[in-house]
Amino acid sequence: MRIRKLSCLKFTILTGFAIFIVINIKSVGEDEQNLQAEEEHPENGKRNIANLRTKDTDILESVPVQSSQSKEKPDPAESEAADSLAGERINELPNPLSSREDSQVNQSQDKQKSQLSLKDILEKLKEANKAQIIHNESLFGPITNDTIVIVVQVHDRIKYLRHLIKSLSLAAGIDQTLLIFSHDVWDEELNELVRSIDFSQTLQIFYPFSLQTHKHSFPGESESDCPRDAHKEKALSLSCTNAAWPDLHGHYREAQFTQTKHHWWWKANQVFSSLRATKDFTGLFLFLEEDHYVSEDFLHVLKLMSLEKKKSFPEVDILSLGTYLKKFNFRANGKQAEITEWISAKHNMGMAFTRVEWMKMVSCSELFCKYDDYNWDWSLQHVSLNCMKEKLQVMMMKGPRVFHIGECGVHHKKSDCDSNLVMDKVKNILKTANTFLFPAKLSVGRMGLKKKVKLKKGNGGWGDKRDHDMCRNMTSVG
Asked: Checking phi first, is residue 250 left (phi over 0); if not, alpha (psi -120 to 50) or beta?
């Protein structure tokens, strides 16, 4: 009996062992098949890993991360800089290296934007300047001396221009204006943007001596021009074209810096003396630039300023809607205006004046055209101090209605050139000021200067006699 039981136990153990071996052999076979399948189709295994990584990454990215610096107090200097809408204005000649880098970027953009030949561009410029077509004239015309003519100087920064046009579209009374866009670049995208305006009359004019159309000849740069940093003796030995005319700092001209002053002077002469729509106009001209932004009540305030000038302050020459202050208090200053001597670095934004004031300026054209400074506003400051019988006087809004949003350009260099950041600041300012816009009347006071205005040494960049001659030739007196 015991022998039978032992036999059954042995049979059971052997059977179990046999079953265990069979199961392992089957498992090994399946593993070999899977390994073979992965070797034949390796992407299957990788795809699963990738899916897992993506899922894990999504989970991680959905969890907010708190910076270890988030609780630290900001540096006071950085806070003050953050209050500046577009940084400090740089008046001296910009760094040539960074400016050339910017120029190279712009040239690359130009190639992408336009496939037109130089001949085609010149023909289009000539045709547009001759036709002087006013768009939307049948909807909002005719132009009278009560119309406000807004002149906008445009280069190639379309992102800023979109912001400006958007702000103009929101302004009360904009349908009673004529918008003149003065371009120094022919670009179809820019043109389409301007032509899309449906809230006022518009007119486009084109500076005919631009770097776009004169890349390799004056007023652009040619191979025969002297190197910027060449000493005069070296330049004379090279017999380069402008060897005898370095600027007051000993540098030779760079075309990209002379264009803005030429364009400003040409544009002003055009609107006051040549354009059919405005050559006999006696009302207000307001001068803006592509990187400006206006408040909804800027025209309302401009009209109040003009009324105050006519009624009580006839000595005022320029009405200024903008300022470079870093902080604004519209509760206290929303309807405050002050009268003082015009200073280019403070009062050059959102300038408005009439033909009467322009005649004072253009009568000093010789000094304007010869002054060795590539900035039009510093040149006008020199004219005010050294040519006019009475220095230019300005009425400036302490609560600005024109803002500068240009983070980067010839006069403003910042590491972060995101226009949206400045736009957010401006919109927040105007949102906070909303209840103080559209004042019924202004409170105007006089402010004496703490010290006599003395123009410092010019910034240079304008020593070349060819620039002087071209400036004179663009001048229309009378």
From this structure: left
In sequence order, the 6+-apart residues with CB closer than 8 A to the CB of 396 are: 320, 323, 337, 338, 339, 340, 346, 347
**DSSP code at position 274:** I
pLDDT of 194-250, one tens digit each? 999 999 999 999 999 999 999 999 999 999 999 999 999 999 999 999 999 999 999
| CB atoms closer than 10 angstroms to residue 285 | 22
Pairing relationship of beta strands 393-397 and 177-183 according to DSSP bridges: unpaired
CA separation for the pair 349, 353 (Å, rounded)? 12
Q: Is the Cα dihedral 250, 254, 257, 262 positive or negative?
A: positive
Indicate the pTM of the whole model.
0.77
Q: Which DSSP string do the residues of 177-245 spell out, in sequence order?
A: EEEEEEESS--HHHHHHHHT--SSEEEEEE-TT-TTT-TTSTTS--TTSPPTT--HHHHHHHT-TTTT-
| Cα 157-181-264 angle, rounded to 5 deg | 85
Q: How far apart are CA 373 and CA 251, in angstroms?
A: 12
| Cα-to-chain-centroid distance, residue 80 | 22
Residue 375 phi, psi dihedral angles, 5° rounding: -90, 130
